[in-house]
Write the structure tokens for this entry.
Amino acid sequence: MTDFLQLVFSGFATGSIYALAALGFTLLWQAAGTINFAQGEFVMLPAFMMLALLSYGAPLPVAFALTALISTVVLGWAFKKSVVDPLFKYGMMQIVVASIGLSIVMKNAMRAGYSAEAHPFPSLFSDSLFNVAGVTISTGDVGTLVCALLVVFATQAFLAKTVTGRAMQAVAQNTESAAVLGINVPKMIFYTFAINAVLACVAAILVTPVYLAKFDMGDSLGTKAFFAAIIGGFNNSRGALLGGLIVGVSENLAAAYISPAYKDAVALVVFMVVILFRPQGLLGKREERKV
Amino acid sequence: MSKKQILFGLAFGAVVLCLPPFLKNYGVYMFTTWLIYVIATMGLNLTVGYAGQKSLGHAAFFGIGAYTVAILMKAGFSWWLGLPAAIALCFVLGVVLGFPALRVQTIYLAFATLGFNTAVWLVMRNEEWLTGGTFGLNGIARPEIFGYSLKDGLPYYYFVLAIAAIAMGLMWGLLRSPWGKAFQALRDNPIRAESLGIDTRNYTLLSFAIGAAYAGIAGVLFASLVDFIEPAPFAVGASIMMYLMVVVGGSGYFLGPLIGALVGMVVPDWIRDVFPILSNWYLPLFGGTVVLMMIWLPDGLMSLPDRIRAKRESKLASAKRADAKSEMAAVMGEQK
Amino acid sequence: MTAPILKVNGLKKAYGAIQAVGGVSFEVMPGEIFGVIGPNGSGKTTLFNSMLGQITPDEGSIELNGKDVSKCGPLELNRRGVGRTFQTLQVFGKMTVRDNLIVAAQEHKGTMLSRMFAPSDSGLGDRADALIKRFRIEHVAHLKAGTLSYGQQKLVDIAMAFMSEPDLVLLDEPCAGVNPSLVGGISTLLKDLNQNPHSGKKSSFVVIEHNMDFVMDLCHRIMVMVEGQVMAVGTPAEIRANKQVLDAYLGA
């Protein structure tokens, strides 16, 4: 039983990171109709940026802050301006293809231009383990879970409680009406991209210590983020959290109880079941097919 | 067909038929690989380009074709049994994959096909008893035709060329027939299509099935070409590359796959040969090209002639309007 | 007594608490042009969507040529001889005008398998050309439908509905968004198609429209719907003189 709880708990921790990536992904879809296949790479790039800054002697919090800033500009503003805006009128698949191209560029440029190897990354949390009612939990897991949850809830609070946040929600639900109401739609969409960039940075600082920084670290993370976003509900922010936790936990349980080789399969199966029988996700609302 | 097109076709035919004997082994291998991917991409072009479906799992069928012939040959059956078996299996599984397409739309369908590919790849990787797992299967021989062995590079190339030509011919015939229009109707306006008596269900399933069958044929040819197969070329990454090949070539353009497969498969290897410094940078360059192409030429390379023509026509039209305007002005001036 | 081509009996459809259609019955005789008018929210669209197989009615029946089609979807209805136009343009933009017309009827020829081997135009080339001539769109017949003007696309849209030579054509606001100068042309076309059908069989139309002049001029009989119910059915003259209708809908 304790094993099970351990697996569940560490699954929560990993899952909360997936939730961060999934949340950004979902927000981009809702507010900007953008499917970002490069989401995994959006986490990989800040990871390497921070590493670079750290190697120049910057302390971790500074490196993080600076990276978050740079990401907002590059992965937020530049991405929107150069890729999403020009393609928006052509429809979703062009944006998907462009983001696929982008992910290929980022991944392989990093590999060719910088390094093909895995690099260690300092953790925010200490290495220690502690024991709660017979279950061994690592500080890292707790720290990750708490951090990620804090960020997710903060984001959701921002969206629900602040004026800007609500304006962003309005844009996500009905862009035309929002514009008519005087909301600066392009600005709100930019904020969405900015938030996504920051969320990716947070995911980077939490996941890289465990899985190391490598050019292809975005692959698995990106895939899990999609699965999480779809399972939870592509048009619902809370869904990203639920989806992330489900993926994280089911992965761990599958690896332990079925086989490590099929670790990815369980999340996949849940994903397929959801896509086929409830495409709007567990918490999502059915999207009407427009005639 | 215009004179320019006929000349182009003849030149192309000459290159494809007459050049390979003058190439080294590696060159022949490249040509063969290109043709194989042309066949696979043609199938995807039908599903995605002509029928408007979303499929990011095409490489799964490529792999199923390859593994089917490999496994059957290991069990002692002839290659000539393996080919139809692979086609049939891929066709059936293509229909199966088509069912989600009836229930879910666009991006969700794309994700579902991704999931399908991942599932197939996982089976290929893990079920060692069947597929050899990560160790793969080797010793996949090339077929014999009427006792004539196709073991060598050049004969096998011509064999693949013949099959590719037949496949292209069949596809051309299919697209010219009423089916071609039905697929396009399904792509452009499925609701209108239904109200006109076009059974969108059937055509959706068939677009997946036929596309998958083509990938299966390509997979069989691929297995015999490379002699040793393992799961990597059939993973999601490969599906995405195939999709990009269709898009770069020109989605819904008949000759698109020829260019798409060239850019996706042949050019990287050629670059690695000629400009070794760039070899690591091919993929980022390709990715960058895809991004730029989406922004400037979203309909792919084959859409370039249409684009140029449309620009020329609109220039002519505005010139005509300008002329008409000045004529009017002159006439009005005279009347004053 | 000739049998009606279309018979709607006690049709009811509710959306939650709103009774969109609350017991509508009417008949359309073969060769007739039957208009349906009424203010917004009167249930015309819901009625139409039921007749088109897009929604299933809660109660009541729809009979086509004496056979119940209440549960048929759009595909099945087309196979049974029902054609329709759309309020918003729904042509196949990337195909030529001529191909649009051909694809509009090709599924009625042969089976799926036989169509794989059929010639590209399924033998419908002449019929398409005849319709193109009737609609006076010869000069754009070989252009991609998406490049035409709105009015021209509207004509293609209507032509497509007639390609399969349906017994019954449902026209959903054929004049919507159309330049007033074209409305008269559409009316003439429809009258001609009704009186001189290409196939020689009688062709009946049901038309929803807001353009009163158009409706009064075109239709043999008109049905007025208000709040999900039939208020009156009669010839244009009768409807124009009907005091109830004038008060509720047509105004002074």
Notes: Residues 305-336 of chain B form one domain. Strands of chain B lie at 144-145, 148-149. Chain B has two domains: 23-299, 305-336. DSSP finds 14 helices and two strands in chain B.
